[in-house]
């Protein structure tokens, strides 16, 4: 059944370590109409990541070339010297088939998507229960250096000021995955399926 204006994009925005990929996986398992939109980045690949699955890993030169060629819907220098962006080709490949694109992007990127897509996009700000909890999760994940963790926390503190501009705020509390699962599925059912 079609809901309101048919929405094509769900954006999960918020700091890294907050559990956006867990929520994305819940959506992917809930309905095969949800497809993950793979972003491009210039950051180094982490252990266990795969090119074209987690990200398209581009050199800075390649990223700049594509940016100049207008291949991105939006892009941000999320951290100093590290670029991230959403490719037009990736999104049209999903929505042209009537499927729903899941974006895992930063807060500014989410607001840009809302500006471009309006009611066709639903943007969700994913928050930890506290800044301490986020710091602990990033430490336990052990994929980022202490400097990277500090950079991510500092950024999150700034992003919090923009939460009012989101369609919805979802608190993903440590150890309460069932409640987060219920909330994201409720969003999917109400606005997309
Ligand atoms: P990470 O390096 O931890 O994978 O991601 C760092 C941040 O970049 C996360 O907040 C992630 O959501 C964001 N990000 C990933 N892809 C994109 C994108 O295509 N555009 C924007 N604006 N941010 C992105």
Descriptive report:
The protein is of the alpha/beta class and 193 residues long. It has one domain (9-191): 3-Layer(aba) Sandwich (Rossmann fold), CATH 3.40.50. The chain is 41% helix and 23% strand. It is built from seven helices and nine strands; from the N terminus they run βαβββαββαβαβααβα. The protein has helices spanning 20-30, 60-68, 88-95, 107-117, 131-141, 146-159, 177-191, and strands spanning 9-13, 34-36, 39-41, 55-57, 72-79, 82-87, 100-105, 121-127, 168-171. The strands form two sheets. A five-stranded parallel sheet has the order 2-7-1-8-9, with helices on both faces. Strands 4-3-6-5 form a four-stranded mixed sheet. The N and C termini lie close together (7 Å). The model has no long low-confidence stretch (mean pLDDT 94). It binds guanosine-5'-monophosphate (5GP).
Helix content: 40-55%
Distance between the termini: 7 Å
The largest sheet is: 5 strands, parallel
Mean pLDDT: 94
The percentage of residues in β strands lies in: 15-25%
- Tell me the radius of gyration: 16 Å
| CATH uppermost class | Alpha Beta
Structural class: alpha/beta
Arrangement of strands in the largest sheet:
2-7-1-8-9
> What is the count of DSSP helices, taking H or I runs of 4+ residues?
7
CATH architecture: 3-Layer(aba) Sandwich
| Small molecules (ligands, ions, cofactors) in the structure | guanosine-5'-monophosphate
**Topology, number of strands:** 9
